[in-house]
Amino acid sequence: QVHLQESGPGLVKPSQTLSLTCTVSGASITTIYYYWTWIRQSPGKGLEWMGAVGYTGLAYYNPSLKGRISISRDTSNNQFTLQLSSVTPEDTAVYYCVRAVYGLPWDWGQGTQVTVSS
Predict the structure, then answer these.
(1) Are the C-beta atoms of residues 50 and 69 closer than 8 Å to each other?
(2) What's the 3-state SS for 83-94?
(3) Sign of CA dihedral 55, 4, 111, 13
(4) DSSP-derived secondary structure letter, 33
(5) Which end of the chain is more exposed for a tag (fewer CB within 10 A), N or C?
(6) What is the pLDDT of residues 78-90, one digit of tens each?
(7) Which of 34, 32, 33 is nearest to 4 (CA)?
(8) 56 CB contacts (<8 Å, ≥6 apart)?
(9) Which phi and psi (to 5°) does residue 89 adopt?
């Protein structure tokens, strides 16, 4: 059974960088065809695919976030990390880390609330 757990601060000030880590158990983040993904849901809005890091280590990003987003992985600890810079209150959301298999979301973390506020 694959388990994903998000961790990071729940409150970030505007203009700062949001940083979240997802710790994975039950599967290796280097397994072929797995894409380790960040998805968020802002209040009153639908799910937004933010980006993913693949089994090769190559990262893919939502064009609407490009320039602010970075996703990396730590294979020694089986973790992957989201960094989102220059945050505004519009980045307030529940952030989920997700394992995607053949492009489809398969396993989800429980989600973590991040609020951007001074």
Answers:
(1) yes
(2) EECCCCHHHCEE
(3) negative
(4) T
(5) N
(6) 999 999 999 999 9
(7) 34
(8) none
(9) -55, -25
